[in-house]
Amino acid sequence: MTPQNIAESLGIVFAPQTPGYLNLCIRSGNQLLTSGHVSDLKGKLGADVSTEAGYAAARNCAEKVLNSVWNTHGTLDGLRVLKVLGCVNSTLDYTDQHLVINGCSDLLHQIFGKEGNGFHARSALGFAQLPTGAAVEVEAIFEVVV
Questions:
Q1: What is the pLDDT of residues 2-59, one digit of tens each?
Q2: Which CATH number fits the domain that encloses residue 84?
Q3: What's the total number of domains in the chain?
Q4: CA 27/CA 92 separation, integer angstroms
Q5: CB 14, CB 70: distance < 8 Å
Q6: Strands 136-144 and 37-38
Q7: Looking at residue 146, what is its pLDDT?
Q8: Degrees to nearest 5, angle at CA 52 with 47 and 55
Q9: What residues make up the domain containing 59?
Q10: Does 16 map to a domain?
Q11: In this predicted model, what pLDDT tens digit does every residue of 96-136 receive, in sequence order?
């Protein structure tokens, strides 16, 4: 199955986006760079949000990123995941940001392959606050390989 087929089989919904204030995904040469996409879940890891809920929020961000990539590229096929930046709204003593952002990475591995085009570089960082009070924000860079 292709990445597009796998994503659809996982229930990811792809829908047209209306252009807004910022470009959610822009192509430059053979790269697709996304803006940060925030989770629907609000709150702070280490206070009112569990690591498990944060994991689901990071997956939610990845689904939004993939929809923006689809809107720019027309498909998830022919792409390689290069880099993921995961931002976690967390308390000063919370140190499991990497486990939260695994929600994004695990989904990308499922779709693009952990050993192949889904094997990416990543940063998972804690932040004192994120826009709209979101629990997680994710941005990514993809390479067009076909």
A1: 999 999 999 999 999 998 899 999 999 999 999 999 999 999 999 999 999 999 999 9
A2: 3.30.1330.40
A3: 1
A4: 36
A5: yes
A6: antiparallel
A7: 73
A8: 105
A9: 3-11+23-144
A10: no
A11: 999 999 999 999 999 999 999 999 999 999 999 999 999 99
**Contact present, 37 and 130 (Cβ < 8 Å):** no
Neighbours of 22 (CB within 10 A): 8
57-90 per-position pLDDT tens digit:
999 999 999 999 999 999 999 999 999 999 999 9
End-to-end CA, the chain: 16
Is 96 a member of any domain?
Answer: yes
For the packed helices 51-73 and 97-112, what is the interaxial angle rounded to 10 degrees?
40
Query: Coil, strand or helix: which one is 49?
Result: strand
With respect to residue 18, please indicate whether it lies within any of the assigned structural domains: no
Report the DSSP pairing between strands 79-89 and 121-127.
parallel
Tokens standing for residue 133: 């009070």
Flag whether 50 is in a domain.
yes
